[in-house]
Write a structure and sequence with these properties.
By secondary structure, the chain is mainly β. The protein has helices at 276-283, 304-313, 340-354, 397-413, and strands at residues 13-15, 18-21, 24-29, 32-38, 41-42, 44-49, 51-54, 57-60, 62-63, 67-71, 75-84, 87-96, 101-108, 113-114, 116-123, 130-132, 144-146, 162-165, 170-175, 190-195, 198-206, 210-211, 216-225, 249-252, 289-295, 298-300, 320-324, 330-335, 365-367, 373-374, 383-384, 390-391, 394-395. The strands form 8 sheets. Strands 9, 10, 11, 12, 13, 16, 18, 19 and 23 form a 9-stranded antiparallel β-sheet that branches. Strands 6, 7, 8, 15, 17, 20 and 21 form a 7-stranded antiparallel β-sheet that branches. Strands 1-2-3-4-5 form a 5-stranded antiparallel β-sheet, with no helix packed on it. α3 (340-354) runs parallel beside α4 (397-413). The longest helix has 17 residues, at 397-413. The protein is globular.
Length: 418
């Protein structure tokens, strides 16, 4: 991936334990965000903390100042240690140009007793008017409780984030998997309670005494929103606009028109009928930018490489859409896991298409582009955690982020909109 900060984001600025990205200033306490301001307004009533249960109640882990260990233009990595009593925490925190902060920490020493452990933070009331997970959730008088159950069931209503927000600004937590979370059967370890002072979030990582095993690791992310400015023409830059005078974008390639098949992004050059070049002339009518249809989660199963790797890429339990393209070919558009090979295969097609520099093409359009659970063990989905518990899935959040970042950077490289 190109090591650049794409527009409209701005270069990362580091000042001690502060990291500044577009419109936001993060202050860190170890791996966690002590405070973050968005457009000059502080969002947190209480910063992110890691209280650990002891015989004398919860005590908050104290962290050393983070040390910058790696820096590139588009991201940087901090590392450090924390301690409470005999427990030790070693951590890294990767901060990206868009403001995403990914915390990774390991608890030790092995064999030490651990009564309980949680992550706690509180968002100011004016930035906790709404709660989405990503679907909107009404606040309940006695609090909202969530679990990882949706990771193990169908793709509908998946709990993939906890985003508190006001009219503009907000603060979001993004889980990756439930590995090493220890809680009673039927318990709901994710809690949100809102009152006049704000919305408190409690992530109960461990709620019963355990002996620390090897590799007691945790990883998740935080981000303050909004993450980027709206484009000046955001109200007119929308799709399905060929019949409307005030729109500037059009999704093209339905049924594989102009391409070798549905969602392939490979231009058709030897068809007896209209080819890609012919469709370019049609798509550009009315000074409208064309965005070929594709999917960052779904691939055309007629493509040879997809067919070869389908068993190890496919997402069990997810939808597969039957397709009959404009050439009469029948296949499916199936959800696929973004393994490194799949990401490279997909992004190479984006690069090849946009490197043509066709002025009629404004970028690419992604359908089915949302976080999903990966259950396929061949693709790194299901695994066994440090306590020996079978974890049936993990979210594809990081892999999807990489796909979108690489796509965006390629679009900017060739002067495309998105």
């Amino acid at each position: 991936m190109q090591d650049v900060v794409p527009l409209p984001w701005t270069p990362i600025v580091v000042d001690g334990n502060h990291v500044r990205v577009w419109n936001r200033d993060y202050e860190f306490d170890g791996p966690f965000i002590r405070q973050v301001s968005s457009d000059g307004a502080d969002l947190l009533a209480q910063g992110v903390m890691l209280p650990v249960g002891t015989e004398n109640g919860y005590k908050v882990v104290e962290f050393s100042s983070p040390v910058l260990t790696h820096r590139q233009n588009d991201h940087l990595v901090f590392a450090g240690r924390g301690q409470v009593g005999d427990l030790t925490i070693s951590y890294t925190n990767t901060v990206w140009f868009d403001g995403y902060s990914r915390c990774q920490f390991t608890v030790g020493p092995v064999g030490e007793k651990l009564q309980a452990m949680r992550v706690v933070y509180k968002v100011k009331p004016e930035y906790a008017t709404f709660l989405v997970t990503p679907q909107w959730q009404p606040f309940k008088p006695d609090g909202n409780d969530f679990t990882f159950e949706s990771f193990r069931s169908s793709e509908e209503n998946i709990f993939s984030q906890l985003w508190l927000m006001g009219e503009v600004n907000g603060f979001c937590w993004a889980p990756e998997n439930e590995g090493n979370w220890v809680y009673a059967d039927k318990a709901r370890p994710i809690h949100v309670t809102r009152d006049a002072t704000g919305a408190e979030v409690v992530l109960q990582l461990i709620d019963q005494p355990v002996t620390i095993p090897e590799n007691l690791n945790y990883a998740f992310g935080f981000i303050a929103t909004p993450t980027r400015p709206l484009p000046p023409d955001y109200r007119t830059f929308c799709s399905y606009g060929m019949r409307l005078e005030n729109t500037r974008a059009r999704i093209v390639g339905w049924g594989g028109k102009g391409f070798t098949g549905y969602a392939t992004l490979v231009p058709q050059t030897n068809c007896p009928g209209k080819n890609y070049e012919d469709y370019l002339k049609i798509w550009s009518q009315g000074d409208v930018l064309a965005f070929p249809y594709a999917s960052a989660n779904g691939l055309n199963t007629s493509e040879p490489l997809v067919k070869f790797y389908q068993d190890s890429w496919e997402m069990p339990g997810m939808n597969a859409f039957p397709i009959t393209d404009v050439y009469g070919h029948k296949y499916t558009q199936a959800f696929m896991t973004q393994t490194q090979l799949m990401r490279d295969f997909f992004i190479e097609k984006v690069e090849k298409l946009l490197s043509r520099q066709d002025p009629q093409i404004g970028g690419v359009y992604y359908d089915l582009c949302y976080v999903t659970p990966v259950r396929n063990p061949l693709a790194g989905g299901a695994f066994t955690d440090a306590f020996g518990r079978h974890i049936p899935s993990r979210l594809n959040t990081l892999q999807l982020r990489e796909m979108l970042m690489r796509t965006l950077k390629i679009c900017r490289k060739y002067g495309k909109r998105a």
